[in-house]
Specification:
The complex is a heterotrimer of chains A (about 375), B (about 140) and C (about 240). Chain A is α+β, with helices and mostly antiparallel strands. Chain A has 13 helices and 14 strands. The chains are: A alpha+beta (about 375), B mainly alpha (about 140), C alpha/beta (about 240).
């Protein structure tokens, strides 16, 4: 133990000789770790939020497909579905989009069906009359509207319509409600230009989770032009979409990653004549091969573990304390109404170990391996060299 | 040896900071589950929300779980989609020009204000210079 | 120092050393040398460059293994030992002063002197103590925190000697120690080594510098040419 500590001590002395170079490596390395970890933390956190949230989503959504596209569905279909065993209820959903050309943003219009008008996370209440609306934080910020104010939207007949704002969604719900304008169901249907007797799709409540797939199959049989979407498909979609998104972000950074790998490779493998000589000196004064390799291992461990710890701390602060400001531009893509992210802090220990393993092991290996040849040669060759 | 000790102390300190951050995330995560999640679930259940309001540029990004399986560029004229074609083909100006959208609505298809309880905002209610600039682009590539 | 009757510290028996064995550039550096090193003597191995004296020196000092033949340090047969065992014998028995000093220029004098002690089981206070003594005996205390590359040639020389002494070796091996020194520094070095020898340390030089060969402390001379001993003298 004492011997290992002493070799670690020497490794530190050895690294201290080139403080600028080694700190620069640590900085770049820590930055790389921070970027990769930020992406992983953020997407993992959002994915987990989605998985937890949509447990409250309808068990089944039934859409109608024509020509490969989603078209309004007859509300009457809902009555048939409601008669299926284990179906608790069917509610037509009236939702869609409107493009606000002034702010160049797409807004989601959502019809609120019958039910409680006051609900948690809504400051004020949900609309109960056709002239009222509740709006998400992003919409509110864009128009500077608040409860008691008004918003103008252009409806399906390209008519500007005024709505009184009776409620705004509170911040913890941003990730669900940021771009919403909620109206009464009837008004939403009218606004979106849905034909009489049609809804955007049908939300189906199923009592028994095990029955969802059976019901979906029945719906598909009864209405061949329908597309039933189960809740587990929704969850799966989110799993997949973030894999892809984080892949995108990592792809953007892959240039940086590759540059770093080259740097590490060059630094670690390019054993300079000077380093070779040093190893020879160590061997000549009584270090054996194992000692020299241990020294190199410590050098690698010191650099990579310092970078790892700094990088992980930076990533956590960046994502969970600051709300990932550096990743948002990349994540938001073309989105105009992108919510302010306050991802729920969540870190999977497995992920931490994976990052740690992928950070420390290759670097240490890249440091130790090239020293091997110099370390096993007899010291006399170095001395006489 | 003092160097090794300093390193070990600092390293341990780093690990402690990291550990307490992890602990904090666990605490926050539990708090979110306890305090926010039931409300969020209730909200998503009440409004039948099925998707995250992250990307508003197109249906397949705003409602990934609800969208047609492979049609991109479905809803947002303002947003070049994610497929490579989006960098080459931009949406028609008629779709993106705020004025042409409002302008096309003023063509005599207005319903009578108040008859159905809706309050209409006439295009003329917007600022005068906006109105004056209207109609400058036809939006068609070929016109007679 | 009459050590003839005592068992020798190092015994070399019919040793050969061939580099690049079997290759076209094969070099037969040592071609069958037998000799002994006795406690307390000052032995000079003399010969022009390329005569094989450095090879012989590295074999005596357990830095390399002979191609054939036997080397015994005390009563241990070195040629059969593992690398680790060989290294520990080298560390415990020998101190080396190299022709090019081989200090690590960016490290402090203290760290340079401490080098041989890092991979030992010695406690830190013990280590510090040894280094202190070695540094003090070489009168370079005032330079202990200076980088080895930034001190004068004489101080570097003393640092290298301090490093050779820090493990309190029975035998100090010096390979061409005066090759790059002016007469003043050479004389100083030889004085230091003479003092060491008076304290009981055995010293082996490899050199062709007359200033060393003719120094009064030298107790025995071996002349090596083309890998064999051609002359033995005991003045």
């Amino acid at each position: 133990m004492r011997r290992h500590l002493k070799i670690l001590d020497f490794a530190l002395a050895s690294l201290q000789r080139r403080p600028f170079k080694n700190w620069a490596i640590i900085a770049v390395y820590a930055f790389t770790v921070a970027v990769v970890a930020s992406v992983l933390f953020l997407t993992q956190s959002i994915r987990r939020e989605a998985a937890q949230l949509f447990v409250g989503a309808p068990e089944l959504t039934v859409q109608r497909m024509v020509g490969g596209r989603h078209v309004p569905i007859d509300i009457g279909v809902g009555e048939t579905i409601a008669a299926f065993p284990s179906v608790v209820g069917v509610e037509p959903r009236f939702w869609g989009y409107t493009y606000d050309a002034v702010t160049e943003s797409t807004i989601t219009i959502m019809g609120a069906g019958p039910g409680m008008a006051t609900i948690d996370l809504v400051e004020g209440r949900l609309p109960t009359r056709p002239t009222e609306s509740a709006i998400g934080a992003g919409v509110a910020a864009m128009w500077g509207a608040e409860v008691g104010g008004e918003v103008i939207l252009v409806d399906a007949a390209t008519t500007g319509v005024l709505y009184e704002v009776v409620g705004t969604f509170e911040s913890p719900s941003d990730i669900l409600t940021n771009d919403l304008v909620v109206m009464t169901a009837e008004e939403a249907a009218l606004f979106l230009g849905l034909p009489e007797g049609k809804a955007t799709d049908l939300a189906v409540r199923v009592a028994n989770d095990n029955e969802i797939d059976t019901i979906a199959a029945k719906v598909k049989r009864a209405f061949p032009d329908s597309r039933p979407i189960t809740r587990s498909e929704v969850l799966r979609t989110y799993d997949a979409v973030f894999h892809w998104r984080s892949g995108m972000m990592l792809a953007v950074f892959s240039g940086g990653l590759i540059a770093f790998v080259i740097l590490a490779w060059d630094k670690a493998t390019g054993l300079s004549a000077e380093e070779r000589r040093e190893i020879g000196i160590l061997k000549a004064v009584g270090w054996d091969t194992g000692d020299v390799l241990e020294l190199k291992m410590w050098e690698g461990v010191v650099i990579s573990s310092t970078s790892l710890i700094l990088g992980l701390i930076t990533a956590m602060v960046h994502v969970f304390v600051l709300g990932a400001p550096l990743l948002t531009p990349m994540l938001r893509g073309w989105s105009v109404l992108f919510p302010e992210l306050h991802p729920t802090p969540h870190v999977d220990p497995y992920l931490l170990f994976a990052i740690g393993f992928l950070t420390v092991v290759p670097y240490v290996a890249a440091t130790v391996a090239p020293s091997w040849k110099a370390a096993v040669t007899d010291p006399d060759e170095v001395v006489r060299g | 040896m003092s160097r090794a000790r300093t390193f070990i102390v600092l390293g341990t300190l780093g690990l402690v900071v990291l550990g307490s951050l992890v602990g904090w995330t666990r605490y926050e995560s539990r708090r979110w589950k306890r305090d926010d999640l039931p409300q969020l679930r209730a909200l998503s259940s009440r409004l039948h929300l099925s998707d995250l309001a992250l990307w508003t540029e197109a249906r397949y990004t705003r409602h990934p779980s609800q969208a047609d399986l492979f049609s991109a560029f479905q809803d947002s004229p303002g947003a070049p989609e994610h497929f490579p074609a989006g960098s080459i083909v931009s949406p028609s100006p008629v779709l993106t020009d705020p004025l042409s959208i409002v302008a096309s609505g003023s063509g005599g298809r207005l319903r009578d204000a108040g008859s159905d309880g809706r309050r209409r905002a006439m295009p003329e209610e917007r600022s005068p210079d906006v109105v004056a600039a209207r109609g400058s682009s036809s939006g068609w590539a070929f016109t007679p | 120092m009459t050590a003839a009757a005592e068992s020798p510290l190092v015994r070399v028996e019919d040793v050969t050393k061939i580099y690049h064995l079997g290759a076209p550039d094969e070099v037969r550096a040592v071609r069958g040398i037998s000799m002994t090193v006795s406690r307390g003597e000052v032995l000079v191995i003399e010969g022009p460059s390329g005569s094989g004296k450095t090879s012989l020196l590295t074999i005596i000092g357990c830095m390399s293994r002979p191609t054939s033949g036997q080397v015994l340090v005390g009563d241990r047969r070195v040629s059969r030992l593992s690398e680790t065992a060989l290294t520990s014998i080298r560390r415990e028995t020998f101190g080396f002063i190299f022709q090019h000093l081989h200090l690590i220029p960016d490290l402090t004098v203290k760290d340079n002197v401490m080098l041989p002690l890092f991979p030992t089981r010695m406690t830190v206070p013990e280590m510090e103590d040894r280094v202190d003594r070695a540094i003090r005996s070489m009168r370079i205390d005032h330079r202990r925190s200076a980088r080895a590359g930034r001190i004068s040639g004489g101080e570097q020389q003393r640092t290298a000697i301090a490093r050779a002494l820090v493990n309190e070796p029975t035998i100090v091996i010096a390979d061409e120690p005066t090759a790059h020194l002016d007469s003043e520094l050479s004389a100083e070095l030889l004085d230091i080594l003479a003092e060491l020898n008076r304290a009981g340390t055995t010293i082996i030089f490899a050199t062709h510098d007359p200033r060393v060969i003719e120094h009064p402390i030298v107790s025995r001379r071996l002349v090596v040419r083309d890998g064999i001993i051609v002359e033995k003298t005991s003045p």
